Recover the amino acids of this structure.
């Protein structure tokens, strides 16, 4: 069965469609590998998100050529991250999300935030002590939140990402349409 995300993707250019379908593995690599290490706990979280991505977004987010190529490149993206590639992909994804119908964009943003938090929290603390999100992962997540205009209203998530000092406060009703990507 085709999802609304896949139906939306069918109306995109080939490059935009490839960018969208590669989102799950690319985000897994950039967030999980932000600190240069992709450990077993992050791998477990990545597998969970892979399954969720297929369920929520659709099978083509896992089984398209673009997704499969991006999954194959995860080790490379973790070992030698290309910041220009990251920025370019993120800006293309931002433009695609802005083209989505509002409800679809909201679901996508919520999925991306959940994926990012799940991966980042997978291996950051010992016995529940300390900050579960390391600074490198926090920076990548914050960039994604800003670029995709993801509203973060939960005070615990805002604190974890250290968003409470932001000059574009997403917690006081500022929605995606009111924020600018950084």
């Amino acid at each position: 069965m085709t999802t609304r995300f896949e139906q939306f993707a069918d109306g995109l250019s080939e490059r935009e469609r490839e960018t969208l379908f590669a989102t799950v593995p690319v985000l897994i690599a950039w967030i999980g590998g932000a600190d240069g290490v992709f450990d077993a706990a992050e791998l477990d979280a990545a597998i969970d998100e892979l399954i969720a991505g297929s369920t929520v977004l659709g099978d083509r987010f896992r089984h398209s050529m673009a997704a499969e190529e991006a999954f194959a490149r995860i080790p490379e993206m973790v070992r030698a991250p290309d910041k220009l590639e990251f920025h370019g992909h993120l800006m293309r994804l931002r433009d695609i999300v802005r083209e989505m119908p509002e409800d679809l964009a909201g679901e996508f943003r919520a999925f991306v935030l959940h994926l990012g938090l799940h991966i980042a929290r997978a291996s950051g603390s010992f016995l529940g002590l300390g900050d579960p999100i390391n600074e490198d992962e926090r920076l990548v997540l914050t960039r994604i939140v800003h670029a995709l205009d993801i509203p973060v209203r939960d005070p615990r998530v805002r604190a974890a990402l250290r968003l409470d000092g932001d000059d574009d406060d997403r917690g006081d009703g500022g929605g995606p349409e009111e924020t600018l990507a950084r």
User: Anything to note?
Assistant: The radius of gyration is 16 Å. Residues 43 and 153 are 28 Å apart (CA to CA). The first helix runs from residue 4 to 10.
